[in-house]
Amino acid sequence: MASFEPPTPKKAADARTAASMLDSLNLSTPAVLRDKTQAELATQNLSGYEAMRRIRDDAAQFRRDYQNWRKGANKGAKGARGITTVTEGTVKIAHNPLTELTASQKSYPLQRRNLAKIAALGKLKVPSTPEPPKPTAFLAHLGVGGFHRSHQAYVTDVLLERATSRSVPDGYDNARRVSYKQLPGSGGDLNEIADVWGILGVGLMPWDKKMYDTLKRQDYLYTLLTRGNDGSEARVVQSIVGFLHVPEAPEAALQRLEKEDIRILSLTVTEKGYYRTPDGGLDTANALVKEDLDDWENGLKQPKTAPGLICTVLLRRRGKAGPLTVMSCDNLPLNGNTARDSVLAFARLVDQDLATYIANEVPFPNAMVDRITPVTKPEQIDILKQEYGVEDGWPVVAEPFLQWVVEDKFVAGRPAWEKACSGPNESVLFVDDVEPYELMKLRLLNSSHSAMAYVSLLACHTFVDEALTDIDVLTFLRAYMNEVVTTLVPVAGVNFIEYRAKLVERFSNPYIKDTLARLALDGSQKFEATLGRALVEHFKGCAACNFDVLALAFAAFLRCCCTSTFDGIAPSPDITIDDPKKNLLEPLATDALRCCVQEHESGESLDVEAEDDWRAKGEQATSQFLSCVFGKGVEDFSELSALVYKHFTSLVFRGMRDCLASYRQEQLVRIKAEIAATHEILRTLQRQEILLTPPEEAQQTTIEVTS
Question: DSSP character for 282?
């Protein structure tokens, strides 16, 4: 918590008056007396000056404290933000003064037996009943992490709470179920069944055991803490009712997943979990994929990959429990199609009949999820304990904003998620076509996150909100969005200007402390997923000025991948790139760096031919780097490679901060020139209007000509 306690209105007014007198007090105290001790002033019968000096010092200290407290304050009447600093590698996360000013006197471990005690503190929302829910339908989710728990599990919990408390009896109507057969007890009309939905977590990897152990210890409860400029809110979520850790008990997990009450299998496994090659095929060279393919024998006994697990479950259910819906919630363009392609590619290699069954019977709806959810930090766990009285081993921290758009294509029913959220900050939409919403979010939010991450890291920033207090980074981000938005088609009900402004506001949220290092993870896959199509379909063939800012972002990524020192040019300072293509990207980046240095030295020695030769080689290395990221579609995009290499050269010899400042000044000059040209056009049009206006009308209308 910030060390300075906000003053009361009266104390603040008194101190502000004293602070405003500071300069006059300095002037009122003779310079020769300002450094005198109290004893020296007393011997000269000048004790009054000592009192004035104490007032001056107290006022100065107050002003320093008050200014520190006001740093990061909300503009307007909503109050002030706390201070956020980084000290010795530890994040000091500000407490929200609107809702987190009063520390809790007690705290309790998050378990069902303690829910009544936690509720009595009055700090956060807890389930209305102490008993665990008893769902009648289940969603099995593969890859239980922060992102899943911040949106899908949360929205399901809102409905679960209504069903448990019976406040909305019909809140769980199975919306738009497609009948593949009559379920037992359906009474002939599937839509008359009101199911209560719960979630079964599924962990496929050994490291999923930590999440499994934490949730099991907490009776599968966790806390969702949303933090924003308008306040913070915490909620205990109970929608996850069990967890299947496949490595620990593979057969038991598979038997549970083949049960009929499992209606949806959803997943958040990140880009890496689909095991795709750059051209979209299944990466059969991957060790885990190869192991699953080799071990397939009428299914897998212990799946290692998401495609292997899904194919095994669908094989076991075929002819018994029937198909289910496979639903991806990852940040990928047309993520349902991506999941379908990976699963079908795997199935075709092991069982053609199974592949035909999946293609005909199993839907893979596309979905778009928008909620910034950073990695939970120890300091945020402490805030929950100190301010809300709950001791949670792995809570989730997210922004208040949530938008979830889903293609309404489910084979065995679904929760009525659209009934859970409605409003400006939280909404769930079911639509026929997700792609416009998806492309808007992927290109404007996700690709902007990646671009800003590399630029800001090179400018020596650590946190996203901190970076956006840098006018040069902010200018870059806005310019980047202005370029990317040209690739989008209109989206119903969305004003792109307002959407971009809202994104900048969300990125600037100081209370979730999202790190640039998190945004920089898996950059090659994120850039390809968010911008691959745009580069080929929109920018290819355009003038270079139309993708200048994108080229600067790619140059920053290229610079961050330079890990070797070459001829005195050091690698990127204190930046470690975690990328699945790291072994391919780093040699190409180093090659580009070598060409860059050699070109510079050739220019210094006035060897024009060698300079041109090294520049061509550098552009070729850059082209190979971009092809490694975006695939073969950009191989012959020479204008992009040349521009990225040009920016890269500037970054190497001038540094990111100088490049950003120069770019901002260049943009200002260009904009002022365009404004002047526009004014000249306006003056010309106004003169023509005067010449074409009859005298009698001219007398009635005052026409102002800009001088």
Answer: B
Q: Which residue, 325, 339, 226, 222, is CA-closest to 275?
A: 339
The CA-based angle 460-461-466, given to 5 degrees, is 155
Nearest C-alpha neighbor of 135 from the set 110, 117, 153: 153
Confidence bin at 552 (pLDDT 50/70/90):
very high
The angle at the Cα of 585, spanning 581 to 587, to the nearest 5 degrees, equals 130
H-helix or E-strand spanning residue 235? strand 231-237
Q: What is the pLDDT of residue 697?
A: 74
For 646-656, write each residue's pLDDT tens digit: 999 999 999 99
Longest dimension (CA), the chain: 105
Question: What SS3 string covers 342-357?
Answer: HHHHHHHHHCHHHHHH
Token pair 């790291």 is at which residue? 582
Cβ contacts of residue 698 below 8 Å, gap of 6+?
Answer: 690
Continuous H helices in 413-495:
435-441, 447-458, 464-467, 471-484
- What pLDDT, on a 0 to 100 scale, did the predictor assign at position 664? 87
Smallest CA-to-CA distance from 121 within 234, 221, 237 is with 234
HEC readout, 397-415? EECCCEEEEEECCCCCCCC
Is residue 27 predicted with pLDDT exceeding 90?
no
Q: Are 94 and 226 in contact (CB under 8 A)?
A: no
655-703 pLDDT, tens digit each: 999 999 988 888 888 888 889 999 999 999 988 888 888 877 766 555 4
pTM above 0.85, yes or no: no
Distance of CA 201 to the CA centre of its chain: 23
Distance CA 151, CA 227 (A): 15
Calpha distance 358→355 (Å, rounded): 5
pLDDT of res. 666 = 84
Structure token digits, residue 488: 């989008």
Tokens standing for 266?
Answer: 């959803």
What CA–CA distances, in Å, run from 207 to 143, 265, 481? 11, 20, 36
pLDDT (average), residues 32-44: 60
pLDDT at 333 (0 to 100): 86
Asked if residue 412 lies in contact with residue 261, where contact means CB atoms within 8 angstroms, the answer is: no
In angstroms, rounded to a whole number, what is the distance separating the alpha carbons of residues 403 and 371? 7
* Lookup: tokens for 545: 């000025």
| pLDDT in the model for residue 153 | 97
- Our measurement of the distance from residue 516's CA atom to the centroid of its chain's CA atoms, rounded to an integer in Å, reads 10
* Residues 361, 399 contacting (CB under 8 angstroms): no
